[in-house]
Specification:
Rhopdopsin 7-helix transmembrane proteins, three-stranded mixed beta sheet, cell membrane, single chain, olfaction
Length: about 325
């Protein structure tokens, strides 16, 4: 039994997502490498600024820092191995490696969804309850909530990791995708997949639909509050405090619903793979730009950090 378990853990999974793109392998490799490098620099820079800058020491930027940490971890979980597979003659990953990759990306997705929900509540308080904002949400409470989100996601994914790692496979393992995707991978198992499928569906539905409804509800109250502001300048200022988050939420859920909505049949497989490629590569690069493009506080924090570095080295 132990010998069979070791064989399953070491079983090789063949990733053939780039098989039809073999002629474009080098250009795609360079493109993805550039995107990944830019993504890492952007996300880590803003996380660093949030950590060191007193002017960014508030709930909104604590949440932004954690969200961008999710983007960095998510893309790092997938892209380096994809880059390796692009240049490899036989792109494979072990059953254990595939289970870890699935678990990390799943945990990050849960954290990101809950963080976006908490950020919408933060924006609701800032616009609808400005006089009570500092009482209803503050740094200590924000730290506790973020820690709880990470713990909940790890607990949920630990159960799913246990389900996936104990699957048994009887034949060759081939996934026509760029990475280990849950549905096609689990469908290859010849043991009971119901615990993994049921938990996966429950978590996906609960932690996608419910947070989405809460975000929509928050923005309904926000929009009504903004419309009641008398001056156009006041309305513009109020909307600017939540516009970045609204755009990120729109991109995130549009991509998520498109991925969930595309059928997994052979007819739509290339569409699904294209959407997945955009989701794991382009989205983590765009989000830091959205949050920093017109954000004066981050601009000031960056200038202050550069000035400190110049003073230190000079």
């Amino acid at each position: 039994m132990a010998h069979q378990k070791n064989q399953t853990l070491n079983a090789e999974v063949l990733i053939v997502g780039f098989e039809n793109l073999i002629d474009y392998r080098i250009p795609l490799f360079l493109l993805l490498l550039i995107i990944y490098t830019v993504t890492c620099i952007e996300n880590l820079l803003i996380i660093f600024l949030v950590y060191i800058s007193p002017c960014l020491n508030c709930p909104m930027y604590i949440l932004i820092g954690n969200l961008l940490l999710c983007e960095f971890l998510y893309t790092t979980d997938l892209v380096p191995l994809i880059l390796h597979h692009m240049l490899s003659g036989r792109p494979t990953i072990s059953h254990l490696g595939c289970s870890v990759q699935l678990s990390v990306s799943g945990a990050i997705t849960i954290v990101e969804t809950l963080l976006l929900t908490l950020m919408s509540y933060d924006r609701y308080l800032a616009i609808c309850k400005p006089l009570r904002y500092s009482v209803l949400i503050h740094n200590r409470l924000c730290f506790y909530l973020v820690a709880l989100i990470w713990l909940v996601s790890v607990a949920i994914i630990s159960g799913q990791f246990y389900n996936v790692i104990n699957l048994e496979f009887c034949g060759p393992l081939t996934i026509d995708h760029f990475y280990c995707d849950f549905t096609p991978y689990v469908s290859l198992a010849c043991s009971n997949i119901m615990p993994a499928v049921v938990l996966g569906l429950t978590v996906s539905i609960t932690l996608t639909i419910l947070p989405f409804l809460l975000i929509v509800l928050s923005y309904v109250f926000i929009i009504f509050t903004i419309l009641r502001i008398q001056t156009s300048e006041g309305r513009k200022k109020a909307f600017s405090t939540c516009s970045s988050h609204l755009l990120v939420v729109t991109i995130y859920y549009t991509a998520l619903f498109c991925l969930y909505g595309v059928p997994r049949s052979d007819q739509y497989l290339n569409v699904y793979k294209g959407l997945s490629f955009t989701y794991f590569s382009v989205t983590p690069m765009i989000n830091p730009i959205i949050y920093t493009l017109r954000n004066q506080e981050i601009h000031k924090a960056l200038k202050a950090a550069i000035s400190k570095m110049k003073t230190f080295y000079c």
